[in-house]
Amino acid sequence: MNHYFWRSKPKKGWKTERGRIYIILGEPNDVQRILSKNQVYPTEIWFYQGLTDKGFPPGFNLVFSQEGGMGKYKLYSPLSDGPQGLLTAYYGDQTDYLAAYKKLVEIEPNLAEVTLNLIPGESNMAAGRPRLSSDILIDQVENTPLREVKDIYAKKFLKYKEIVEVEYTPNYMDSNGVVFISREPSNIKYIYGELCHRTGKVFS
């Protein structure tokens, strides 16, 4: 990851916005790079599909643009940045998304297609502005790690903290344990245990 997203940049690759999204979502299914257009900042379009199990649309795009044509790549927002934010020289009304979009269509149609809506198949505009669905998608992507954190470890740790001591717990596996104590005629105590993991396997 550092090899692809770090190079001579001040931040290591995994700390960049592209690196962070790569960690969250994995490798994109397709990447389009727009690098040699004088009127458009260097831009990458990442396309993802097959992540419906995480609550995402069947297919969606994420766009990264190099601010000012140099330095770091920034995650693009249709609502906050708009097509005008990708043009190196746009002198029109900064709130006129449609005019900027039409200008971009003349220069790079494939890029223009995703600047108003990151989700294929949805209509692009509502009341002259990009729909909120794309920015909601970006927020959903960025909050994916928080949504996937399970608090079962903390709950069980707090529940049994008075009777169980642990020194090192890097990899918690959700499980339920049952312990039986049996006294033999010779007065020797035996402890039997069963551990049922989420896989359904039983060990004793």
Notes on the protein architecture:
This protein is of the alpha+beta class and 204 residues long. It folds into two domains: 2-148, no CATH class; 152-203, no CATH class. It is 27% helix and 23% strand. It has seven helices and nine strands, in the order ααββββααββαααβββ. The chain has helices at residues 2-5, 17-25, 97-107, 109-115, 132-142, 144-148, 152-160, and strands at 30-34, 43-49, 59-66, 73-75, 125-126, 129-130, 175-183, 189-197, 202-203. The strands form three sheets. A four-stranded antiparallel β-sheet has the order 1-2-3-4, sandwiched between helices. The protein has a three-stranded antiparallel β-sheet with strand order 7-8-9, with no helix packed on it. A two-stranded antiparallel sheet has the order 5-6. Strand 3 (59-66) and strand 4 form a beta hairpin. Helix 3 runs antiparallel to helix 4 (109-115). The longest helix is centred in the middle third of the chain and has 11 residues, at 97-107. The protein is elongated, with a radius of gyration of 26 Å. The two termini are 42 Å apart. Residues 197-204 have low confidence and may be disordered.
